[in-house]
């Protein structure tokens, strides 16, 4: 009895409202502790109290397919089928965001296409953050406008197969819906106008700036090129005067070899000069000693001649 739809409930999409949820998931909801403890004998007024206690949204999670309280309350609303004014009050109130999400889910399942676009599109301007539990049992952060966009675009969301929704452009062609107007259209138009004005001003000013910059850059390039040419010419003149060829890898190797050879020659010449100087010094020393002996002998013979003595023999 607790799992049966209300007798006064009307069919939705040609079937029992609870049948919008798949049988397997519906049976898991009936077997869950939250359904048995908190969803028994709920009325439309009591659903508001339970919705105020919600802290996250989602479908089923974990390996044994556990339903979230959000999914249980959505099925309970399908079972009791609250009045349209109560559902619209769920959506239009701004204090409790999870009650708004619950009302948006129920509206997407039961209302027709024109009413869905009419009441859900204004919720695009709600940017509050919601906690969403994925199938792994982990929380993810989404926003209210993302939640509404998924309800309008996805075929399956929160593990519920959403009823087919007519395209908005088809309803606009039949004049069942007016053209969509976003609150951001005015800001976008103002931004586009300001961008157009800035582009026009930049187009008027840019040619002058570019022409001046180009002329300046060309003059600088010419000056730098002239300086380089003058330097290269001076280097070429100096090389010609010295009789040097243009620097290359072979010429550099030859110059290094010549430098090494000249250094070796200088070292050899220095050694030969040192040897010659040493020989001269030794010979000069020997010649000076012989001259001294001859002088002494000559002086001694002169003195002996005065005294009438015989000269010394060498």
TrEMBL record:
**Record-level GO BP terms:** mRNA splicing, via spliceosome
> Is Nucleus included in the keywords of this UniProt record?
yes
Q: Name one GO cellular component term.
A: spliceosomal complex
Q: Does the record's keyword annotation contain Amino-acid biosynthesis?
A: no
> What superkingdom does the record give?
Eukaryota
- Biased segments, Basic and acidic residues type: 218-289
Cell compartment(s), UniProt: Nucleus
Region annotation Disordered: where it falls in the sequence? 192-314
Q: Which InterPro entries match?
A: PRP38 (IPR005037)
User: Which keywords has UniProt assigned to this entry?
Assistant: mRNA processing, mRNA splicing, Nucleus, Spliceosome
The free-text function statement in the UniProt record for this protein reads: Required for pre-mRNA splicing.
Family membership noted in the UniProt record:
Belongs to the PRP38 family.
What is the name of the protein in this document? Pre-mRNA-splicing factor 38
Give the source species: Caenorhabditis remanei
The record lists the lineage as: Eukaryota, Metazoa, Ecdysozoa, Nematoda, Chromadorea
